[in-house]
Prior knowledge:
This is FAD-binding PCMH-type domain-containing protein. This protein is 34% helix and 22% strand. It is an alpha+beta fold. It has 3 domains: 7-99, Uridine Diphospho-n-acetylenolpyruvylglucosamine Reductase, domain 2; 106-216, 2-Layer Sandwich (Uridine Diphospho-n-acetylenolpyruvylglucosamine Reductase, domain 3); 220-423, Vanillyl-alcohol Oxidase, Chain A, domain 3.
Amino acid sequence: MSVSLNPRVSDxxxxxxxxxxxxxxxKGFEEANRSYFSAFANELSPSHxxxxxxxxxxxxxxxxxxxxxxxxxxxxxxxxxGHSPFASxxxxxxxxxxxxxxxxxxxxxxxxxxxxxxxxxxxEPVYTELGKYGLxxxxxxxxxxxxGGFILGGGLSIFSSSMGFACDTVAEFKVVLxxxxxxxxxPTQNADLWWALKGGLNNFGIVISITMKTFxxxxxxxGLTYYVPDVFPRLxxxxxxxxxxxxxxxxxxxxxxxxxxxxxVTTCVMxxxxxxxxxxxxxxxxxxxxxxxxxNTLRTSSQLGFAGELAKYTSxxxxxxxxxxxxxxxxxxxxxxxxxxxxTLGLVxxxxxxxxxFGLHPLTKSLLESSARAGGNAMAIxxxxxxxxxxxxxxxWTSPGDDERIFAVVGNMVTELRQMARESGLLxxxxxxxxxxxxxxxxxxxDVSARYDPDGIFQKGVSxxxxxxxxxx
Length: 473
């Protein structure tokens, strides 16, 4: 049943933003509310969507809503570009959703060493604008992903082996606190908040813009290599050899096997960020066969070109989610994981429009060492823990009638995978949840929250995928 906001809250919103407030049922509401990456977010219906265009308007919104958030009369969601698959991360039923997509802007500093990016941007215009100056940043591998959520979640880029997580290249955040105050967070000003925002998600305030370090953009060699499905076990062996032994920090890979449209296929996405064609470090993958050569895309291109390529494989508006397990490098365990994935696929592949991906995203020692040199982040993974693999499980389907069984079957599989890794001593504490950041880091995050949000606005009144106040973390 739909619930209307307290009339006082509704009136207050209109006083602050006027025509930029979209009540449920108004012109433009449905278009804005049906544009999320995940169908589950599309299916939530806030009472109002508000669309600020400036930091000042966001400040006014927070100050206006603050008493209602504290009293429980209102709950809030903050949307960047809406790419999270978890419904409550960026939308909310019967509350107020702040849609940040109008906070755009790409402002290069005078010396061109940094660029300030509005959180309403996606990476495609960022790469395009910086390319005019021969520059780039360590942004997302998919051009259509939003800047804000990607950085606040940590972020892997094709430059991660040499630069760490994408958030490690952030020079400054501008953020509106629960008090409505706009502050800067950088290594010398509010440094603890700067650290916390690097992977700490939406627990501390509403980020307005992110300033990142730039560097020269050059040719990149890489793309996708497709293999027949039976190659995947051998690809696992070579992937473990890569993360255990490779010293070339100008490389980046992702390996996966997947099912869709009645077929399985195995892929390796690989890049050499200095543009060396088929370098020795990647020949363990380019020489592996048999390949489906007509589908391969290896070439010399730009970051924009490769990010645009991966964006074509993103499915918007589908019923989908992802979950992850972080493990230490071990061929036997990964083969056992793959066997369990195959077994699970057999139970649900008849679901309408079903697509199922089992992906491996390496966290190399070089990545973790680069992250530490940059000042660290909320994930707090010591280099000594590496190398690691983030195992990403991603089911996609079309019918609501399949929701219950897919969540159950895939959920059981993930539980079994975690138990297998735990029993073998190879499960790493890092997860998609903030509870996986380690006890010391988690307590530090709570201390930062208490300092910058003493009334707990962003714990009690603002939804999100993972909150510091969640007792299950």
